[in-house]
Each structure stands twice: as structure tokens, then as C-alpha cells.
Specification:
This protein is of the alpha+beta class and 350 residues long. Helices cover 32% and strands 16% of the residues.
């Protein structure tokens, strides 16, 4: 559909990632789409070719990694609309023992003072998911609360648990009820999206011998996996079209998912200090790692090599899904690929 977008992806596959799917929409209409590579390319960490190497397609399903944080944020905002929680009320009202200065707003802006992550799978290798979650919620504050940005999966795990307590359902059920269900996103959800997508459509991620080899159809993130596959910071899988529809819903003011004033607050610069970009609630504004020349755009990236970028001024949404951690993490070029796709979006938006 776009020779130039296809060329951008072809330049990166398989050097940067085994598979990539990208969509660019202007005024809600897809103006460019491309898919290239193989959903499973490698059988091990040494790069041995896999026996079955299905091609990437537009309807392929990818592990979104930290883009999941936007789904958690949307649930929290929905609950706040209903008065079930307050963005500036202490989380300790729901989770006893938490520092009373910590609020949902500070969790969603990464200013709660938590460490970036916690390998609870290594700390408690024999514990069940509930025990591990309790330990995560008991993570001590190590930085000044409310003063500076410190990106933290711990904080979003807590936000996800807060949503469960306030909403009276598990996080995956809340995402289904308040986000994917109302938007008709049948290919989006936790735990390989249940029965929504055949396994052959799912992209593989990292080779993890402790989990039996190449991970496919289970969340890549170790913490989310240790918590049972559903967590506030990671665990959502989706197709490019579904993620585009989610981004477009926010671009247009929330649709059936959120009120316009909730979306406005979510996308408002919250005045966070210490970040290399501006920060809304859950979303990054002008993140140089994903927006390229779209300096006023907002969105989020995912560790697996995914990104969502939305520029309301240009009526533009850009989705990139990859499995850049397959077969191992640490490959170069993901940032450049994200920015190149965003730049192509700018060109097409005029």
C-alpha cells in the first residue's frame, strides 16, 4: 500500500527485527500499510533457522510490552470518571501500607519514587502469583515522591492492582469491559488474547531456556509473566489495526471508552521534571525515541520493539509492531526504525 513504508521496514528486517508491521492513518483512514519478515525466524539464541517460519501479515499479533500501560491508564481514567477512585487520593486507601503520598497521578507519571523494575521471578522463584504481587506492592520508595520522573514498572503494577480493587474485577476483565469490548478490539487482550487469535498469527519473542525455548504466545516481560501474565505494566497483545483503533479513539476524544475531559487530562503535560520528554498520564509527549520529527506527538513504546505515535494537530496516527527481542534482546536500530516510520507519517500527513 506504500512502497516507501515497505522500504523502511525492509531495510530493518531481519537486521533489527525478525518481523514488522506498520500502519499510518490520516484523518482516521489508513494511508499506508506494510508487513514484512517472519513471525518466527529463529529456533534458538544462536540464530538457528526455525522449522516453521510463518510470514508477518497485517493481522499478525504482537506482544505490546509497555504500550500495555496505556490500557491500564485508560481503565484508571474510566474508574475515576465514575468516582470509584480519585487521581489525587492516596493509594493507601485501597492498598494498606503504601506510602500515603503516593496517588494514582504519581503512579501514572512515574513520580512515585519507585525503582524502575523488580525481578520478582528471581526473588521469589517458587512463589505463586499472588505472593509475588504482594511483594511487588510492598516495594519500598527509594526516591523523593512527587519530585522527579523515574520510569517504573513497579508503579504501573500498583496502578493495575488499584484498578482491580476499585473496579471489582481482574485487570484483564477490566480492560475487556472498559476498553477492548466497547471499542470492538477482538484481537487485543492479555495472555495471547485468549481464544481471539490463532496461535500461528502470534509473533515470537525472546529465547528463554528457563521457559522452554523461544517464547511465543506468552508475555515476554519476566515480571508480568511471574504475576500470571496480567499486570499493569505489560502483558497486552494486539494487532496493528486494533492498536491503531485504540490510538484513534484517544485522538478523537475518547469515543465510547472515555469522556473528552478525561482524555484531555490524560494528554495534558503534567509538568514532570527529569524526563527527556513531557509526560501526561500514562503517555509520553514528544518522546525522541519514537516520534521522530513529530515533536508534539504523544504515545508510548514497548520493549519488544513496538510503538504508538499520535499527532492530533496533524490528525495522524502511526503504529509500529515488531519483535526486536527475537531471538535475543539488545539489537541495534529499533529507535531509528521507530523514528523512520514516524517520519513517513509526517510526509503522508502533508
Amino acid at each position: 500500500m506504500s512502497d516507501r513504508l515497505e522500504a523502511v521496514l525492509a531495510d530493518a528486517v531481519p537486521r533489527v527485527c525478525a518481523a514488522a508491521v506498520a500502519l499510518i492513518a490520516v484523518d482516521g483512514s489508513v494511508v499506508a500499510a506494510a508487513a514484512t519478515g517472519e513471525l518466527v525466524r529463529y529456533a534458538d539464541a544462536e540464530g538457528t533457522p526455525a522449522a516453521d517460519r510463518p510470514p508477518a501479515r497485517r493481522d499478525s499479533v504482537f506482544d505490546l510490552a509497555s504500550i500495555s500501560k496505556l490500557f491500564t491508564t485508560s481503565v484508571v481514567m474510566s474508574l475515576a470518571e465514575q468516582g470509584r477512585l480519585g487521581l489525587d487520593e492516596p493509594v493507601s486507601g485501597w492498598i494498606p501500607g503504601v506510602d500515603a503520598r503516593i496517588t494514582p497521578r504519581r503512579l501514572l507519571t512515574h513520580t512515585a519514587g519507585f525503582q524502575p523494575t523488580r525481578r520478582i521471578d528471581l526473588e521469589l522463584p517458587d512463589a505463586d502469583a499472588a505472593t509475588r504481587l504482594a511483594a511487588m506492592l510492598g516495594t519500598p520508595v527509594t526516591e523523593p515522591v512527587g519530585e522527579r520522573y523515574l520510569y517504573s514498572d513497579v508503579g504501573l503494577v500498583m496502578a493495575g492492582r488499584l484498578a482491580e480493587l476499585a473496579g471489582g474485577l481482574s485487570l484483564d476483565a477490566l480492560v475487556r469491559e472498559r476498553v477492548t469490548g466497547v471499542l470492538g478490539l477482538s484481537d487485543t487482550g492479555y495472555r495471547t488474547i485468549g481464544d481471539a487469535a490463532p496461535a500461528q498469527r502470534v509473533a515470537a519473542t525472546e529465547w528463554k531456556p528457563e521457559r522452554g525455548g523461544v517464547v511465543r504466545g506468552e508475555v515476554h516481560d519476566e515480571t508480568a509473566w511471574a504475576l500470571g501474565g496480567v499486570a499493569g505494566h505489560a502483558g497486552v497483545f494486539a494487532t496493528a489495526d486494533d492498536l491503531l483503533a485504540f490510538g484513534e479513539t484517544l485522538r478523537l476524544g475518547g469515543g465510547a471508552m472515555l469522556r473528552p475531559e478525561s482524555v484531555a487530562e490524560m494528554l495534558r503535560d503534567q509538568g514532570v521534571a527529569g524526563a527527556p520528554f513531557r509526560h501526561g498520564l500514562g503517555v509520553r509527549i514528544g518522546d525522541p525515541g519514537i516520534v521522530g520529527p513529530l515533536t508534539s506527538a504523544w504515545g508510548h513504546s514497548g520493549f519488544t520493539g513496538t510503538s504508538l505515535v499520535v499527532d492530533r494537530e496533524r490528525r495522524l496516527s502511526v503504529v509500529l509492531l515488531t519483535n526486536a527481542v527475537h531471538p535475543l534482546r539488545g539489537r541495534d536500530g529499533v529507535r531509528e526504525l521507530r523514528n523512520a516510520v514516524a517520519a513517513e507519517g509526517l510526509r503522508l500527513a502533508g
